[in-house]
Design a protein that fits this description.
Elements lengths: L2 E4 L17 H12 L1 H5 L1 E4 L6 H4 L5 H12 L15 H19 L6 E4 L21 H13 L4 E5 L6 H6 L6 E8 L21 E6 L5 H18 L4 E6 L16 H18 L4 E5 L8 H12 L1
């Protein structure tokens, strides 16, 4: 099966200077993709469109949207200590989110489908009121809300395997039983959230599942915890759509992480998730790039993930 591959060179114009989250990440991935002839032929190239303020406001306060817009217009270089911006960052951020929306439209076609969004800046740390952790807008969360609002999707599962906990995604859906948030991540680690007892609140209690892992957890233990959690989730929450916050900084050797996955682990995890998607939602699966900062390793990890998708 072909995979929708959503990318635009404009993503390179989010200028972060000397920073772990930089344009070289996408360039490294593109190099691997373009040199794999089999993979490249199976990708349906698609350009993103900008997300509207209405799309973004399903998950973020209007005050945050305006704050980021004005900060970029006024030439500011940081939203916080970690989160760099440039003059183009607001528009690039809207296109990163828009890429996720285009992915939703693609996989919600009658025959179902799979999509990978090669975009930056990442998104899973962005909360309703704050940009943080390299993230401007929460691409995965906005895509989930768009799928519900525009396509009538009832149950969305967001799977986050980034080395860092997606505190923003968790907060957005904390009280919502229609979106299940599942995260494996290094703990304790940035941003300090993601303990096992964080399970959602109100009507959303039990619809957040965190699997915190100590630094240097073996790939075998990591994979087993991931598989066990998927089985538990599927019994309780058969999803109509699955969105992966695909962070590859959980790979062994990443400069910002301490977990031990290898490329083959991302491949096998992808296959497990895809089987769930095929059982419940015509194989509808979207993956959005989050972290991954070792430029010598990132392209291989993403390529393994893409090959598993096809």
């Amino acid at each position: 099966m072909s995979v929708h591959f959503i990318y635009d060179p404009i993503y390179l114009k989010h200028d972060t200077g000397i920073h772990p989250e930089n344009a070289g990440r996408l360039e490294a991935i593109l190099h691997f993709v373009e040199t794999d002839e089999l993979l490249s032929k199976k990708l349906v190239r698609t350009r993103p469109r900008p997300a509207s303020d209405e799309d973004i406001a399903r998950c973020h306060r209007h005050e945050l949207i305006e704050h980021i817009r004005l900060a970029c217009e006024h030439g500011e270089t940081h939203l916080d200590e970690d989160t760099r911006i440039s003059a183009e960052s607001f528009e690039v951020g809207r296109l990163a989110t828009g890429g996720a929306l285009v992915a939703v439209d693609a996989v919600m076609a009658a025959e179902g489908g799979r999509a990978f969004v090669l975009s930056r800046p990442p998104g899973h740390h962005a909360t309703p009121t704050m940009a943080m952790g390299f993230c401007l807008f929460n691409n995965a969360a906005i895509a989930a809300r768009y799928a519900q609002a525009k396509h009538g999707v009832e149950r969305v599962l967001i799977i986050d395997w980034d080395v860092h906990h997606g505190n923003g995604t968790q907060e957005i859906f904390w009280t919502d039983p229609s979106v299940f948030y599942f995260s494996t991540h290094q703990y304790p680690f940035y941003p300090g959230t993601g303990s096992r007892d964080e399970r959602g609140g109100g009507n959303g209690e039990g619809f957040t599942l965190n699997v915190p892992l100590p630094r240097a957890t073996s790939a075998r233990e990591h994979r087993q915890a991931f598989t066990d959690a998927l089985k538990e989730i599927e019994r309780r929450f058969p999803p109509d759509l699955i969105i992966i916050s695909a962070g590859f900084d959980s790979r062994r050797g990443d400069s910002l992480g301490g977990l031990m996955l290898d490329d083959s682990d991302f491949s096998e995890m992808t296959k497990e998730v895809l089987k769930m998607a095929e059982r419940h939602g015509k194989g509808r699966l979207i993956a959005l790039l989050e972290g991954g900062y070792n430029l010598n390793l990132l392209g291989g990890s993403v390529t393994s993930h893409l090959l598993a998708l096809i």
